[in-house]
Amino acid sequence: MSSRLLTDFKVEVNARADYANIEVLQTSNFPPSAFNDSATRAMLSWLLIDSNAKRSFESIFRYFNVEKEQDVSAGYKRWLFHFDPPQMSGWSFFYEGRIDPSGRYFLVEVITDIEINAQMPSRIFFHNPSFRHPDDNQKPTIGGKGPDPYERPEDHTIDDDREPSDANHAFLLGENTCSIRFKNRFATSKATTPQRSHRPDRSRDASKKASDTVSTNKPGSNGEIPSADMGGGMQDCTDRSEEYASRFAAFNMMVQMLEEKYACTIIESYTHELDQVGRSKCHLIDSGAKRTIRCVLVERDGHVNYLLEIDVTGLNKWISTKCIREIDTRNWKEQFSRIKKGVVTKYLGWPTQEMDAMFGFKKHIAISHPKSIDGHPTGIATESILDWAGRVANKL
After folding, report:
1. Domain check: are 9 and 92 in the same one?
2. Owning domain of residue 191
3. Same domain for 30 and 126?
4. In-domain check, residue 66
5. Which of 45, 92, 151, 284 has the highest CB neighbour number within 10 Å of its CB?
6. Per residue in 291-338, pLDDT tens?
């Protein structure tokens, strides 16, 4: 029901200050955990703020409401799903499929990448009383009643014949099979309030495995099994270079040295957030924000190379810079997506075997960082960055 946008969210846009506040109302059944996902926040922001998108979304329920009684047989109502597409001037699509035998039509089987052209506020904040962060100024409570620990199963079975319970946060299911970005970048975040953290009692029983059977129906007080929501399906590929520039201060200085000292040309650069893979939480930093990966496309002496750097915020280690040499760039979007997933799967390490299969042995090279210095603004002595740039240039 498109009316749920009105009952679940309250939107205030400050056009002059270029920001918007979205309040997640108490009546909302939207899973709180979904707001941890930047792609979900971006899509919700777009639906709620952009009149072009909202008008298209609301047309779904309008057609359904008018046409739902038109095809009734054997006790079933049938409706052919359709809607009014939004205006898509300036959008880009990447897709896979096949041409039909006549050669006149192309069947799109899957859309792999979407770039949306929309005018949005630069900053969007989601508000809800349940959005909390640990208060570092207060000692955590020890023992007592905290959330029951559980271990999430590897896979879930959906049983929609049973009612889910409203006593738990919904599981988010779905693979990140489609990447999405916005042509005019904007940042979304949860506005969290401080809360005294809880330190669990070590004497308590080990975590129990959560039920692997879930239901995607509307949860209720008499529900028997956990609720779930098909919240996956997208990875946010919006460029976050400006937002996370401070995380790559030393790396960006090194790249600048490549241009100034080693006659390199920077063709393109961007920073993406890392998404969760399985049960791993290594894609998150302590604050709950997502870790990132930076990609710089460099040309030297006619050769094109990709330089990759992993965000090590909050860690006491560096991860080698990765140089991928002279590859066919036509499949790079898919390859980069597999690398990002592999980095998380390897607990913040390079997926060497998979990169061997994609690019060939010795076509991707690890280049070590200079020695780190505690307390230094960039984590690396400035005089060491030129030497780092020289070692990188020798591999290009």
Report:
1. yes
2. 4-50+87-234
3. yes
4. no
5. 45
6. 999 999 999 988 889 999 999 887 777 789 999 986 666 788 888 988
Q: Are residues 189 and 279 in the same domain?
A: no
Kindly state whether residues 105 and 243 are assigned to the same domain.
Answer: no
SS (H, E, C) the chain: CCCHHHHHEEEEEECCCCEEEEEECCCCCCCHHHHHCHHHHHHHHHHHHCHHHHHHHHHHHHHHHHHCCCCEECCEECCCCCCCCCCCCCCEEEEEEEECCCCCCEEEEEEEEEEECCCCCCEEEEEEEEEEEECCCCCCEECCCCCCCEECCCCCEECCCCCEECCCCCEECCCCCEEEEECCCCEEEEEEEEECCEECCCCCCCCEECCCEEECCCCECCCCECEEECCCCEEECCCCCCCCHHHHHHHHHHHHHHHHHCCCEEEEEEEEECCCCCCCCCCECCCCCECEEEEEEEEECCEEEEEEEECCCCCCCCCCEEEEECCCHHHHHHHHHHHHHHHHHCCCCCCHHHHHHHHCCCCEEEECCCCECCCCCCCECHHHHHHHHHHHHCCC
